[in-house]
Specification:
Helix content is 82%, strand content 0%. The protein contains eight helices and no strands.
Length: 181
């Protein structure tokens, strides 16, 4: 345990803050993971409740198909792209707000709180204006569970930062060895 703490302290001391390594990439990883978990759970719930597993993606595509007439593969892919893009942006915002020296437990708790806040803002402000079909069809309790899952996935930001910092440190060591040779 002490060696791990020392390694982490050295990583934080040696590596200065880098926006790509500390915010963008961990946010993209956590956002992709969170969007994937949300999509799988939403499709599973919709498949059980309505018999249409692709219904959530069609409802998200309501951003462009405002009358609710979204059908076919194009609408499903469009809905998934919108969902993953929004999740990536929100997770990157979370990674920007999360302190760099935070623990995984703190990130998990803050991520769940962030997910609850997102649920509040999305359910009552964003969804009614951006996607009327989703606003009419989606139960808020299911959206709450999906946003909790997204928030829990945001707890992976410190782990992604650690991996990227170690890769950066290894890259720097290899560069020094190459210059020395």
């Amino acid at each position: 345990m002490r060696k791990q703490q020392r390694t982490r302290a050295v990583d934080l001391a040696v590596a200065p803050w880098n926006p790509v390594r500390d915010v963008v990439l961990p946010g993209a990883v956590a956002g992709t993971l969170g969007a994937f978990v949300m999509a799988v759970l939403a499709c599973a719930f919709s498949g059980v409740l309505h018999g249409e597993p692709w219904r959530p993606a069609l409802l998200v595509a309501g951003l462009f198909f405002r009358d609710g007439a979204a059908h076919g593969v194009f609408a499903v892919v469009l809905g998934l792209l919108i969902h993953f893009a929004v999740a990536g942006g929100l997770a990157t915002g979370f990674a920007l707000l999360l302190p760099r020296r935070g623990t995984a437990v703190a990130a998990l708790c803050l991520g769940v709180l962030y997910g609850m806040g997102l649920w509040t803002v999305m359910t009552w402000l964003m969804i009614p204006f951006s996607s009327p079909p989703l606003s009419r069809a989606a139960p808020t309790s299911m959206l709450f569970l999906l946003h909790l899952a997204f928030g829990a996935a945001l707890g992976t930001v410190p782990a992604a930062r650690d991996v990227l910092t170690r890769m950066d440190r290894l890259r720097r060591q290899l560069r020094r060895l190459k210059q020395a040779a």
